[in-house]
Amino acid sequence: MSMSTFTKWVAAWGNATSITDRTAAVYAKDITLRYPIRICFSGSKIRFRFSNLTGTEPVTITSAFVAKQVPQTANATTYTPAAITFDSKVSITMAPGTEVESDAIAFDITAGETIEVSMHFADFTQMNAGTLITGPLSNGKYSYGNFAKDRDLPADLTRNTNWFYFLNTVDVFTEEQNHALVCYGDSITAQDWPDYLALRAWDAGFRNVSVIRRAVSGTRILREYNCITYAAYGLKGATRFPIELNVAGASAVIIQHGINDIIHPVGVEVNKFRPWSDMPTAEDLISGIQEIYLTHARKLGLKVYSGTLLPIYGWRTYNENRDAIRNAFNQWLRTAADFDGCVDFDAAVRDSARPECFAPGFDSGDHLHPSAAAYKAMAEAVPEDLLK
Q: What ranges do the domains of the chain cover?
């Protein structure tokens, strides 16, 4: 393919950046992070966004590299990492609350290839900016030591991780018809269905769309927590959305958000951080979607698709009032003229005989998060037109 056919930047992979789970260990030192990322577009250049959005201290990436993944059976010399630079420098310090974009790097990529993005942090580093995501395309590794340029990470110093730290977006300079579909939400979207959607698009022969995940477990539309116990539940919608919708080449966004607003409040006598005053009405959630999400998405010229909320029967805070709010909110999501369409995830996974419950085999076991089969059903529920 001629480079002259490449005309614009489009996000090929993306993740949200939130506050990581607050444990006793907050810092790392002399650590390598490596994330394999499947690229769905061909292109001639590549660039990266790194984020310290939720950090409270500067973070220095000592060095970072990108390389095409090669089979273990291949000669190690075929692994040729290219330095990721920032104003031609190999190292960058990100101030607290900021994101940085790398230089554009000449990098010929063919759709379907997997790249590996590796970062080394030499000094003590606050690991406060990252997000936990899962799915068949979402995995990473970390190693003690500097192995950012090596094809093989040492097995005795390396572990797998689903925490994606600092790496926020990968853009490819690609063809004009290519575009990005943003999947925005909470833990339901931080888990598997966006990956299954990306695989569905690829297997169906749709080569013009990337699936960009912007999701954080525990987040709410209307509120956020200010305590280390729930810090990883992240920023509220009004703060998150304008930042996370910074997606090159985006054409549309699917919003599946709001269940945590409904299920979290339990009263201060049970949990001091979850007062009953946090309980929204369906009207509160509707206003949040209209004023926070729709207003900004329309400014960006995006199509907006609503995503209905899934069944919660059996979840530890379930009651009929919460489910009534969910159902009223879902009815608006299905019928409101505000949207370009609705992805009815609820209908895709609920039990037809008992619609307050997941269908048999579709409950992960906690009565809130879907099973792998249900995540595949959610991916199938997305209209084909969004993938063309």
A: 3-170, 177-387
